[in-house]
Amino acid sequence: MSIVVYFSSISGSRELKQQQSQIFSFLDSRKIKYQAVDITQGPSGKEEMRKKAGNPTALPPQIFNGDKYCGDFSAFYEAVEAGKGEAFFKL
User: Fold this and answer.
1) What residues make up the domain containing 9?
2) Which of 22, 37, 39, 83 could form a disulfide with 46 if both were Cys (CB 3.0 to 4.6 A apart)?
3) 3-state secondary structure of 82
4) What PROSITE patterns would the database entry show (predicted)?
5) Closest C-alpha to 74, from 51, 46, 55
């Protein structure tokens, strides 16, 4: 299985950009391989992300390990603060 992070390369929100950056930095610093899927490159990415997350209004970033839903940024942040960052990714 591999980590998949759905993100948006086009956003006016500084907060969203920071959230996405934190996730990518965490993965990069631990040399965890992942696939980044930019949902702004076509409608299929956003639809796929929302379907996999089970939420028709889900916003990026959304994180998966294969087909297993790991969570959104809030869940990631809570796991990292609790010292369970790697467990969040279901590694």
Assistant:
1) 3-89
2) 39
3) coil
4) GLUTAREDOXIN_2 (PS51354)
5) 55
